[in-house]
Every structure is written in C-alpha cells, then in structure tokens.
Amino acid sequence: MAQLKVTLVRSAAHRLPKQRKIVEALGLKKVNSFNVLPDNEATRGALFQVAHLIKVEEVK
Q1: What is the pTM of this model?
Q2: Could you tell me the CATH number of the domain that includes residue 7?
Q3: Taking 90 as the threshold, does the pLDDT of residue 46 lie above it?
Q4: Domain that holds residue 48
C-alpha cells in the first residue's frame, strides 16, 4: 500500500476551526513539520480540505 508524506507549508493560524482540526488530526503541528500517512479515501478527503496549506509527496 502506498504512503503519503504530508508537509505543512503554510500556517493553520487564522484559518477556519474545521481546517485547524484537520491539520491537527493529520499530525501536523508547526510549519515544515511532516507526517507519513496511508493512502486511503479518508486521508485523501482530509488532504483535499486543506490542500492550500500542505504539500503531498508519494513515498514508496
């Protein structure tokens, strides 16, 4: 199963509360922090909600 490396490139401060909760649920705290997550529909849905704040790379 593929993995996704998700990096926070813009701050979640001053964003909608829902977006801040999604960023926290993805395991991202500060700018340039990253987390490796499984590539599934639930993860993809969360990434789509905060796509303007993150960078996603596929990890093999």
Answers
A1: 0.93
A2: 3.30.1390.20
A3: yes
A4: 3-59
